[in-house]
């Protein structure tokens, strides 16, 4: 098995939840809950990534990826944070060459960045133009990092990563290992200044999402049992994830012990978001209450810590058909759009589909409005 596990790999951690825990209705939550009004394609972001991905003016840049987190940098530029990424050429017929490990010319990295400034994108990787490498390098060929959400601590970029490790030779012989945060200087994003361990002792992958609110940075995680997936909530005082963590217990109080972190709800995906909308908070996620679900849903709360209730349908992804599936929808509240910008990922069960149709393995963007 080559290092190219394929863009299929997120399937095992993104789509196999089945059971949602019923949440009690709350009059208070209802009073704070915005109602989804519409969800339409964000034409600006869709064309931005389509045109950039198809542009062959450089051959060490982005042609497709998943993950798709974002962070507004101090300069005003938008940092796009990706996990598995294709770099290289797109052929005139909309195909891409196979990856280098399979005898082609396409470079496959487990993580990368892109920076948007004034409607133009540029790819950031480490290594060289001839031999690009990931911005968050693995410790060896049996480990790799996929990105979580990112936050800004003063003038320093903090990007969360989950480390995965291979334990056998089979296609699916790999598992989550631990959480870390990598700190980057905004002007030197090709490699971290430092890497620090995050809490990892109780099977929760932090951070599916982060949110700054009320003097805290809230950190949302997922306990992925395949079926189901459970949401967990933590918080850190201030801006940096290197501070003292505390964890939300089932009784609504906070504990300094990660073992006390409670399962707050199920039905979330491995990547989701919590955003301030009006006087309330909105959780956006792919609905994992059914396998391979094409539906994006929203829940609301009066608190960044939940409980999140009042499940609403947001959007049904039209790409989902045959080999094609979608996953890991979440919001980008700092990105300009005609509403709350939401992205989701598109993938295929068949590896060669990523070569025959370059459009598959690219994020899609929505503008979601509320009333």
TrEMBL record:
Signal peptide: 1-29
Keyword Signal (UniProt): yes
Stated name of the protein: DUF4185 domain-containing protein
Keywords (A to Z) from UniProt: Signal
Taxonomic lineage from the root: Bacteria, Bacillati, Actinomycetota, Actinomycetes, Streptosporangiales
The keyword Signal belongs to this UniProt entry's keyword annotation: yes
Organism (species): Nonomuraea insulae
